[in-house]
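In this supplementary section we document a worked example of the pipeline. Step one takes a protein sequence of length 294 as its only input; no multiple sequence alignment statistics are reported here. Step two produces a three-dimensional model, which step three serialises into structure tokens for compact storage. The input and output of this example are shown verbatim.
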Amino acid sequence: MSEQELQAQNLFDVSGFVAVVTGGGSGIGLMATQTLAANGARVYIIGRRQEVLNRVAERYSSKGQIFPIQGDISDTASIRAIAADLEKREEKGINILVNNSGVSPELKAKEESTQIDFTDPHAVGQWMVRDGVEAWRESYAGNVAAHHFLTAALLPLLRKGGQAIPGHSSAIINISSAAGITKTHSQGQFAYSSSKAAFLHLTKEWAHTFVPLRIRANCIAPGLFPTEMTTGVSDENQKSRLEGAGFHFPAGRVGKETDIGSALLYLASRAGTYVNGQVVHVDGGLLLKSPSTE
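The serialised model returned by step three reads:
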């Protein structure tokens, strides 16, 4: 192997690659989008809010290009439309799929999590179901099923993309959460955390299933990052802020763009072609201090 092949700009090169990022308009999805576009990839961002997608495309296109596709991946008809649109635009397929979008509907339980008397079974039982059955349906539909159906629809494009670039296998990168690994109650978000655990397992099932297709599936499990889910809002640049948080993590801070970007580039580029079915914990050391399943 030549010295040139070992240089970082070649190992982690994604220039000319085609990527699809769900929920690419804010939070971790935007971090992924920025990273891929800054390194020369052509990125399609999918989301329900057209104005947000347009804003991102206008502000963050650099070496690569960012194209908005409005769609709801929890709806099968919308998924078919997204797949058909991508097939028309990218005859040689796609190389990277980042399944990032997610939901966290247990707002009431989260608000009450610091007020629960954990020695009172009635109080704990009521708190566990505070947001009702619908929160469970929404969590599993948005955090697991939507990605499953979208990925199934895009498999032919991922297969084409892998065949178009010698030495690279198409990469699916799922964004789960450290909440799917820790044994804590996640502030009462039992539906959210268990759905993220399901997404971790689904990643491993996909990796095994897609071996004949030469499509890799890996997962990033982030810790605490500034997103609309954790802060509730984004600013005019579609960015969120978390002030005074993360000091109790070994890293001493919350996550930032470069943390997601470096892990994403590793899994998406030639550097990660020998990695399949794995979970990368990008959590600032959270799992070193919290009881976890790993």
